[in-house]
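Reader question, answered in our methods column.
A reader sent in the components of a multi-part assembly and asked whether the whole thing could be modeled at once rather than chain by chain. We filled in our standard form and ran it. Here is what they sent:
COMPLEX SIZE: two components
ENTRIES:
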Amino acid sequence: MGMPVPHVMASGMGGIRAAGDLVAWMQLTRRMRINNAKAYVAEKLKVAPKDLSDVYIMRDIREELDIGIITGVPGCAKGIEARSNIADLLDIEINSVKHYRKN
Amino acid sequence: MEKHLTRMGDGKLVEMSSDELRHDLEGGSEDAADKGKIEPLSRSEIDSLFDIFTDSNKHVSVAHGNEVVLTDDVGHFRLIQDNGGCGIGIPLNHMAAVMLHERGYGMDTTPYTAVDATFKSFKPIMPYFQQEMEIIIKNTIIPIYFCAMPNLSAYYYPDGPFPNPSDLLPAGKVKEALEAQEKAVEHLTKDLIFCGEKIDQIGCDSFNFDTVGSAGDGDFLATLRAVEHLKKNTNMGIVVGMASEFVLGMHGGFEYRGERLAGMYPNEQAKMVESAGADIFGPVINTNTRKSVAWNVARTTAFSKSCSEAANIPIHPNVGMGVGGVPMCETPPADAVTRASKSLVEIGKADGL
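And here is the structure of the entire assembly that came back:
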């Protein structure tokens, strides 16, 4: 179980199961505090901030926006392709995406 | 009198009365206020911690909507390594282990690192890390950061090129000890920048300086200088996580932007890290194994709250083995970990963990 599982269950946003990765991108690229980062992402996704950790709501939204989903559905964006869509959706510069597009 | 199951800082399960628990919560908070010259937790915050510690459920969690971003300084290696570093020794390749953190655990971010996670060790084999990181970032969605320790100690005899201050100081050679540290800081700074620029070349998203300050104020200074350089010259996000709650004055005279680094506690460290340009700061508050988890969590929460109020960047307190109120043992019990987790987010004003 290690350290991640208790924290994921107690306090985590769920990563790509929900919208934890999107909020993390805002902290890393814009130095946003948690409430500002959630508000920013929620506005882009047209949901309430509390919905960002709800896997039921986020599963369908992520598929519609093609920003990567937790389950292995053929044809959905994966890896850098999904990350590239995230950069466009959130209007941020992601270093790996910039590098990928340059090449 | 009602008894509550809780743990000691070494992980042992114990029973405590309500009065004993409240006494420890207040004691931990007061100790943080005394050591860090910060405000203790308020009465209502102590009451909230008391509710968390007297919750009879085995595990606890934050309320809906209060979740935060998780960062990490071990990541895939906890699954792979079996060399005494608290890993579980599953024969996975790095790519698979990183993807397990993203798709299996639901982590919000995860690092890529290696055995002997010291930048001095990484420097000669950066092409290997560039190649592997390139594959990882093309196959993942969550932010991945390159993570290792500055570890200034690796620059002293017998592992490095400079005389060891820990040998020189007891021998009364103070001037020589100071000079050795000053030279080592210059070398470490160059190596940190070298590794950062190399991994940025392949489009790495973020760089995590982990266990900063482990060798004292020189370790912290080299990191701050490298952060400043990498923020100006690369496109990576920067995470800085500390080694302990207090910056040891191994040199004593090192300053950054006019501030003496030795003796700094988390709220002061956060300001330095923020001014250098880092995006996320991970303070560390040490666990005292002779005190209860309640005492340790209250102490950590007071420090975290003070640090969060002092900073303008996201604060992600370290909450692993032996820090952040988590017991110092190889298999930290989830009942204690989840209580530390909830306390730091809902009372300690953490932006992440």
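What stands out: The longest helix of chain A spans residues 34-45. Chain A has six helices and no strands.
Send us your own complexes using the same form.
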